[in-house]
Amino acid sequence: MKILLLEDRPERQKKFISDKIKSWENIFISGQIFMPEVNDCKVIIEQINNYSFALNQTFKLLIVHRSALKSSGISHLSSICKEKKIKLIYFSGGISQTIYNSQDFEQINLNSTDFYSDLLIPFLQNFITNDSISVLEIFHTEWKISYMMLYRQLLRNLELTEEDYDLDSDRSYILRRIEKIENVIGKMKLEELHKSIQQKINYL
């Protein structure tokens, strides 16, 4: 198994995928996605909240209805994902802003409407064949371009601070930001960045 999807509100899911039901059913044929029935789902969520949940299969991605979890459950899942380097997607109607973090493991929090978008099925299909893709692709297929443009600007700013010792604190801050972006898109040189950004802009 690669993906565990915990949705304790199947009626919401049916509402969002009603016009894509055939495509939705087809992605489960591979056997790479495990989505337990509602009662089993609630049992697993209770185990997560009680710190008794253990992964008996190899999952690369956990997708969980965040509002079903207590703070203890969120903490427990974070520990599991950090230890096993598992990617995590939280969705909930109560999430008003999309938040992404890749410090210890890749994690994204997004609203249920954004989760059950037209990008969901292609994202799951892509993840099944290539689990190295970023969870950001569930939110925007061209998410990299904004990171690349920021990365390019930071590299330029870094060059400006190289010979000015009065800007050491600025330089340290820039280096920290560069490192965080490199953890997401990898390390790139300016020339490579220019080319990649232009290609994506032309594509758009």
In short:
The protein is of the alpha/beta class.
Written description of the protein model:
The chain is of the alpha/beta class. It folds into 2 domains: 3-138, 3-Layer(aba) Sandwich (Rossmann fold); 144-203. 51% of the residues lie in helices and 12% in strands. It has a 6-stranded mixed β-sheet with strand order 2-1-3-4-6-5. Helix 7 (144-161) runs antiparallel to helix 9. The longest helix has 18 residues, at 144-161.
Unreliable spans: none
Let me know the average pLDDT. 86
Based on Cα principal axes, name the global outline. Answer: globular
Strands in their spatial order, largest beta sheet: 2-1-3-4-6-5
Please give the domain count. Answer: 2
What's the gyration radius in Å?
20 Å
Which fold name corresponds to the CATH topology of the largest domain?
Rossmann fold
Largest sheet: 6 strands, mixed
Query: Can you count the beta strands?
Result: 6
Secondary-structure arrangement, i.e. CATH architecture of the largest domain:
3-Layer(aba) Sandwich
Secondary structure layout:
Layout: E1 3-6, H1 10-17, H2 21-26, E2 33-34, H3 38-49, E3 61-65, H4 71-84, E4 87-92, E5 99-101, E6 107-111, H5 112-115, H6 120-129, H7 144-161, H8 168-185, H9 190-203
Parallel strand pairs: 1-2, 1-3, 3-4, 4-6
Antiparallel strand pairs: 5-6
Helix pairs in contact: 3-4, 7-8, 7-9
Structure characteristics:
204 residues, Rossmann fold, alpha/beta, 6-stranded mixed β-sheet, 9 helices, single chain, 51% helix
